[in-house]
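Lab manual, section 2.4: Encoding a predicted structure.

Procedure: take the sequence of the chain (221 residues), apply the prediction step described in section 2.3, and record the output as structure tokens. A sample record is shown.
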Amino acid sequence: MKSESNIREILAFLRRLEKNNDRAWFKAHKDEYDALRLPWEHDMSRLIGLVGEYDENVRGLAVKDCVYRIYRDIRFSNDKSPYKTYFSGVLGRGGRHTVMSSYYLHFQPGMLMVCGGVWWPEKPILNKLRSLIDAEPEEFLKIVENTEITSRYKWESDSLKNMPREYPKDHPMAEFLKMKEYIMMMRPDEGYFDCKDWVERVAADLRPLKPLHDFLNYVFE
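Recorded output:
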């Protein structure tokens, strides 16, 4: 099926927003923004449907609960720019408010991301994730070393410099036990989305992450 949105046009608009991130400019270009945002949300809704065919945690999600608004919360930020310069959305149980392992798309000039995992879990959850990896290393490695994943994704997770004190320094899973989040990411170029069926393409490329979500989300059951 043909995509409704044009990612190149979205990125072109966002580049201009980066240079004119103020309320007066945005108000003058609000119609243009709406004309880009609406078809993109329609495509995201279709993506939810396609991913929901193989992941029950995505099935039935409303697009409004998955995509982020353009308006920034600047109350506690030194950066007072009123608008985000990206379109993004989370596909997982609870939508953008989830704490579970989920899929994530990010459209920003110079920073296109297709990824999945657990973002910045709170310490109790992080401890459970580490314990799970420690207890089931073979199952974890079987998932993350599968060429279906490694041919597309790389780890993009912040890590501790030293091992958590609960584990020996020479632990064979040290690389993963040091991680403070568990994210696998693909960074495509604009050409990846420059096709009529980018929604189907993304849905297919997200599918290999399903076993990783199933493994990590065990700690929430």
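Check your result against the sample. Strands lie at 87-91, 102-107, 113-118, 154-155, 182-186.
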